[in-house]
Write a structure and sequence with these properties.
This protein is mainly beta. The chain contains 2 helices and 11 strands. The protein has helices spanning about 5-10, 95, and strands spanning about 15-20, 30-35, 40, 55-60, 65, 75-85, 85-90, 100, 115-125, 130, 135-140.
């Protein structure tokens, strides 16, 4: 079962943490998350799953950043989220998708107990300009049957954008 927006609002501050939280971003069954101004871009043209691939950070300037097709941009949410009782899920907003921007390649499924910032795997189908602070994604929450174990994986309690740690 997916929590309604009213249920998300009721659980904010104890069973669901979203920081910063803005009540105006609650939707009928989700909450809008915004894009931070930091972006990582991998340095190598060919990525290797068995090693740590280097990346460099750029900042989205106030006038926006022109994304190019064929480049994977790793961004993150402004908001820190945490829940120990629900499964968080992340999707792109339809208005963002209609511009040809995908906000996650495959990683929209969260684990119960995830705590941190969401790394966004951004790519576009044609050149498009993005801006820091825009409401780019929406988080929603599924219930889970008990008993369950909280997530304790390699991306837990992150403090920023996470490159792939698949090699670990």
């Amino acid at each position: 079962m997916i929590l309604s927006g009213l249920e998300i609002k009721k659980r904010i501050g104890h069973e669901i943490i979203i920081n910063p939280f803005n009540e105006s971003r609650i939707n009928p069954n989700s909450y809008n998350l915004s894009l931070h101004n930091e972006i990582l871009i991998y340095d190598e043209k060919i990525l290797d799953m068995k090693k740590l691939n280097s990346a460099h950070k750029i900042l989205i300037p106030p006038e926006g950043l022109l994304m190019q097709p064929g480049v994977l941009y790793l961004g993150r949410t402004v908001e820190y989220t945490k829940t120990e009782k629900f499964i968080p899920m992340l999707e792109g907003r339809s208005s963002v998708g209609r511009l040809g921007i995908c906000i996650h390649v495959t990683a929209g499924f969260g684990d119960v107990g995830f705590s941190g910032y969401w790394t966004l795997e951004l790519f576009c189908v044609q050149p498009v300009k993005i801006y820091a602070g825009v409401e780019i994604a929406q988080i929603y929450y599924h219930t889970i049957t008990e008993p369950y174990e909280n997530y304790k994986g390699r991306y837990q309690n992150n403090t920023g954008i996470q490159v792939s740690k698949f090699h670990e």
